[in-house]
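Page 42, continued from yesterday. The earlier attempt failed because a stray header line got pasted into the input along with the sequence. Redoing it now with the clean sequence only.
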Amino acid sequence: MANFVLVHGGWHGGWSYRKVARLLRQAGHEVYTPTLTGLGERSHLAVMPINLDTHITHIVNTILWEDLSDVVLVGHSYGGMVITGVADQISDRIFALVYLDALVPEDGDTLFSLRPEFMDPFVTRVAESGGLMVPPFPASAYDTSLPEDWAWIDEKTTPHPFACFVQAIRLSGRSVVVAKRVYVYAAGGICDGMYNRFRTDAGARVISVGSSCHSIMIDSPERVAEILIETTQT
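This time it went through. C-alpha cells are written below.
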C-alpha cells in the first residue's frame, strides 16, 4: 500500500482528482486530495492573504499531521510549484515526485517567469474583477478534448489568489534528494516543454499519455492511475 497526496492546479480543487483517486483506492492505496487554501470548498478562506508559501505550508502540514511517510506526491499544473516547495522542506517524507503536465520551478522562479505568456491575460482578468483574485478561465480554453466535462469543470473552478502566481519560490536544493521523479505530459498542453528540465536527469522518467488535454487526470484517469501505481513499484 502506498500513500498518495494529489495536489491540484490553479482554480481547481481536490475534486479534479476524483476519477484517479477512486482507481487508486480500489487498488488498495491511501489517497489524499487536499483542496488548497482559498479554492474550491475552501474558497471562503480567500478573505485572508494567500500566496504560494501558504499552499506549500498547507501540503506540508497535511503530510505531517496525517503522519505520512514514503509519499508519492503528485502535482498538476500550478501544483508543480507547490510540490517542489513541499519536497524542499520535507524531502525525508517523500518517496517520489510526479508532475502531471505541471510547472517545474527552480529557485527564484514564479509562474510568470516559467510561462511569461500568461502575464497579460491573468492581469487583465484581475483588473476586470476589481480585486486580487484571478477569475477562472473557461475549461474550453485549455481542455479542448473534454467538451463533455466543460460544464462540470466550470461549475467547480473558483478564483485563484493572484499572489500565488507572482511570488518567487525559494528552494534550498533539498528536493533533489528525492530519488524518483516522473513527468507525465500532454502533447501541446499549456505546460508543454516543462519536461525538458528532466531530459538530463538520470533519475527521472518522462512519459506521454498520448493526450493533448491539459487536465490529464480528468481526461485519462486510467492511464494516470496506472503510471502512479507503477511509480510505487519501480
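Notes: The first strand starts at residue 3 and ends at 7.
Reminder to self: strip header lines before submitting.
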